[in-house]
Design brief:
The protein is mainly α. The chain contains 13 helices and no strands. Helix 3 crosses helix 7 and helix 8 runs antiparallel to helix 9. The protein starts with a helix and ends with a helix.
Length: 274
Amino acid sequence: MPKIISRLWRVLVLVTAGVFFVLPLYAMMRFAFQNVLVVDLTWDKIFSKWSFEKFTSAFQVSSFWDSFWYSIKLAVLTSTLMCSLVVPTVIWVQLRMPRLRSFVEFLTLLPYVIPAIGLVAGIVVIKPHIRWFIASDYALVPFYLVLSLPFAFRALDNALKSIDLLTLVTASRSLGASWMQTLIRVIVPNIKTAVVSAVFLTIAVVLGEYTIADVLLKRTLPAFTVEYRGSDPRGGYALAVATLLFTTFLFMVLSFITRSKQEKSRWKGDYDKA
């Protein structure tokens, strides 16, 4: 009996969470894609007059593509910088400074703990002193890297704790491999799922951040969406829904990759036991 109650409780929690997520999203989709006045939306019109006209009309605005490709470039650069800096740093902390891991973890969590308005206030203070940097199209990259640190660090740190990092590095170095070869050929293949997770999380941060881009007057996709919503509310919400669905799709792909790796590891373990 307790097992049945526990199972029902888990199902209830999942259903409640699903309803909490789906209902607001469905309301946004009806407003954005259904050609029916809000006051006339009734249950008998749920499936009537749906159209992607408001969504596709945004593609006809020239500034949309400029903002879209600008955000894509920021996402690629931020992800590349994250892989180049954060991955070696986390590995070095695990190998050489394990006692400082908790302190480093605390530092990486600060962007998540400090409210966004606090980060923006700090940017406003230093803005007059670094105008040469703020004027660059890629000034948002280091800020986005800081915002993605809490998520990227946790993913990489958990992956490194699940492998015998010291043994792998010692074996690789004793066979004559350099540190770069050890990093690329030995360590990264063992944590590639975590690296992919960190990249996807970084992309989600870049595609969803608006406040810092607005303060620095950068025309990113979220900034364009907010501005476009002022002239065409339905079109703006359609873009917001599309962005949300795209990031959700990224996480579904990430879940599939992680599950595939876990199933392969489980199959390999069962085969070795046999």
